[in-house]
């Protein structure tokens, strides 16, 4: 009902719409309409009223509520269904619970705040209220489980494209850290449930630092993390940015389902700050096999190809640090 009232007010534009007219169009009482208007005002919508002519929407808050995100969202799959939480333990955990109950392909879980934001390798992820976009997408693609890790690249590319739309330049460090000025802007955690031959679901959890000032980060993150507002030097409208990310994700997911990962790979290469650089690779087992070489490309599995003095190495998982150029 809330979103229908908002739709009517938005349709009316600058004109006023009477409570009676809205009640008639929505098939509810005028009191019901009035109650919803009060609730919307409490949530930060600026709705002015005029005793004769009715209500008019002046402005909407920048909250990640479904009715805001869906307003003008052009996607086929991603975000057609949205679950919003003012606060949640972790959007990945909630997405997992919903996926186990049969949630559809493309459903997204988004929260204003996470109490237990999760990072890779059992780390925690800083997710303060109202300052970022913390969300997870449930995908149910019809391909083999070994293809799933490549889905992570989709999110990194979509955020890089959205940043470009908003006039910012960011880079992707293999496999999926989005960086600006050498500091981390976005974290991505992909999880999956599958049998040998079939994916049940993939969950891509993405945390975008949007309006976080340097001093808002815990001290140990200050020199490692940054945000879009720090990069641009001004506040970024979260809803509009999120819509751009979802639209890019949707287009990339569509191309994956139709033609495979070629488009995602070519976009990933465009934003990569790893390729062409000397890198130090510490393998996923924790440093037993560390080596240095030049990162030359990614292959069809999304593995990083690194040329070392002993020949070419293929890195499927691990931590990569970019070494400062010597020459
Ligand atoms: C990392 O960089 O280690 C990955 C961080 C992933 C954070 C996001 S925020 C939304 C989603 N929910 C979580 O609990 N984690 C991911």
Automatic annotation (TrEMBL):
Residues engaged in binding biotin: 90-92, 114, 118-120, 184
CDD domains linked to this entry: BPL, HTH_ARSR
DNA-binding region: 19-38
Domain BPL/LPL catalytic: 67-257
Gene Ontology MF terms: ATP binding; biotin--[biotin carboxyl-carrier protein] ligase activity; DNA binding; transferase activity
Keyword Transcription regulation found: yes
Sorted UniProt keywords: ATP-binding, Biotin, DNA-binding, Ligase, Nucleotide-binding, Repressor, Transcription, Transcription regulation
Pfam families xref list: BPL_C (PF02237), BPL_LplA_LipB (PF03099), HTH_11 (PF08279)
Entry annotated with the keyword Repressor: yes
Enzyme class: ligase
Catalytic activity field: biotin + L-lysyl-[protein] + ATP = N(6)-biotinyl-L-lysyl-[protein] + AMP + diphosphate + H(+)
Source superkingdom: Bacteria
InterPro entries according to UniProt: aa-tRNA-synth_II/BPL/LPL, ArsR-like_HTH, Bifunct_BirA, Biotin_CoA_COase_ligase, BPL_C, BPL_LPL_catalytic, HTH_11, Transcriptional_repressor_C
EC number: 6.3.4.15
GO cellular component terms, A-Z: cytoplasm
GO biological process, one term: regulation of DNA-templated transcription
Family recorded in the similarity comment: Belongs to the biotin--protein ligase family.
Function recorded in the entry: Acts both as a biotin--[acetyl-CoA-carboxylase] ligase and a repressor.
UniProt protein name: Bifunctional ligase/repressor BirA
